[in-house]
């Protein structure tokens, strides 16, 4: 019995599962997966490249905005610094302008005393000292007189009050100063009031004017 069972075990073979064979013409499954991965690889690389390019463009734009904002801030800082300096330089402009009439009165007193020098020598010396001290004080704050006498007429700092015939200076030159002008640093506080020279009339001009006047008188008489 045992021998019969042993022979039966020898004749029976184990049944193994047989995998289905791939259809004719189709690559194995492993090759199909590799091919699919190869197909996806180029599209992923292109997407990553596009994202990288977009990120670089955005970074470049942000850097340009940063540089522009830095330049704007620097310009603003410089402008504020200039305005602060201008404010400090001209802070006393109103006060100094109000002091100028006092300077004018002292100058008039000196001029009048010079005309009566024999009777007012002591007064003249005292006023001149006060006037000089006042001028030095104004100069410390940046107030300087406008040059006028003998200078070409400049409407930016001279105000013409009239014309005067003069042979001593060229035409359109300041021949007389009626009131001093002053500057505060490079800003005009007030213009100088001046008389401007003009050339004397020549003989031909006088004769022409006389002839014109005579003609006008004769026409009047005829009428």
Automatic annotation (TrEMBL):
GO MF annotation, one: protein-folding chaperone binding
Pfam families the UniProt entry points to: GrpE
The organism's place on the tree of life at top rank: Bacteria
Listed PROSITE patterns: GRPE
Basic and acidic residues composition-biased segments: 37-54
Record region (Disordered): 1-54, 199-223
Subcellular location: Cytoplasm
InterPro entries: GrpE (IPR000740), GrpE_CC (IPR013805), GrpE_head (IPR009012)
Regions annotated as coiled coil: 66-123
GO CC field: cytosol
Main location: cytoplasm
Low complexity composition bias: residue spans: 16-36, 201-215
Biological process annotations from GO: protein folding
Keyword Signal attached: no
Keywords: Chaperone, Coiled coil, Cytoplasm, Stress response
Function: Participates actively in the response to hyperosmotic and heat shock by preventing the aggregation of stress-denatured proteins, in association with DnaK and GrpE. It is the nucleotide exchange factor for DnaK and may function as a thermosensor. Unfolded proteins bind initially to DnaJ; upon interaction with the DnaJ-bound protein, DnaK hydrolyzes its bound ATP, resulting in the formation of a stable complex. GrpE releases ADP from DnaK; ATP binding to DnaK triggers the release of the substrate protein, thus completing the reaction cycle.
Family: Belongs to the GrpE family.
Subunit structure of this chain's protein: Homodimer.
Protein name, per record: Protein GrpE
Provenance organism: Geothermobacter ehrlichii
Lineage of origin: Bacteria, Pseudomonadati, Thermodesulfobacteriota, Desulfuromonadia, Desulfuromonadales
UniProt gene name: grpE
């Amino acid at each position: 019995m045992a021998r019969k069972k042993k022979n039966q075990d020898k004749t029976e073979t184990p049944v193994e599962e047989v995998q289905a064979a791939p259809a004719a013409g189709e690559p194995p499954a492993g090759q199909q997966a590799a091919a699919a991965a190869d197909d996806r690889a180029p599209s992923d690389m292109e997407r990553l490249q596009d994202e990288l390019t977009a990120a670089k463009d955005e970074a470049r734009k942000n850097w340009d905005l940063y540089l522009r904002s830095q330049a704007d801030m620097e310009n603003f800082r410089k402008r504020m610094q200039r305005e602060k300096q201008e404010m400090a330089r001209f802070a006393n402009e109103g006060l100094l302008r109000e002091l100028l009439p006092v300077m004018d009165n002292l100058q008039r007193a000196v001029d009048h005393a010079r005309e009566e020098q024999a009777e007012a020598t002591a007064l003249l010396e005292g006023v001149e000292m006060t006037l000089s001290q006042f001028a030095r004080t104004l100069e410390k704050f940046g107030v300087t007189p406008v040059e006028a006498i003998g200078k070409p007429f400049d409407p930016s700092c001279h105000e013409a009050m009239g014309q005067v015939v003069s042979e001593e200076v060229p035409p359109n030159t300041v021949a007389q100063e009626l009131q001093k002008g002053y500057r505060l640093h490079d800003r005009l506080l007030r213009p100088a009031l001046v008389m401007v020279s003009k050339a004397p009339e020549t003989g031909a001009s006088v004769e022409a004017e006389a002839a014109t006047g005579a003609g006008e008188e004769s026409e009047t008489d005829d009428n």
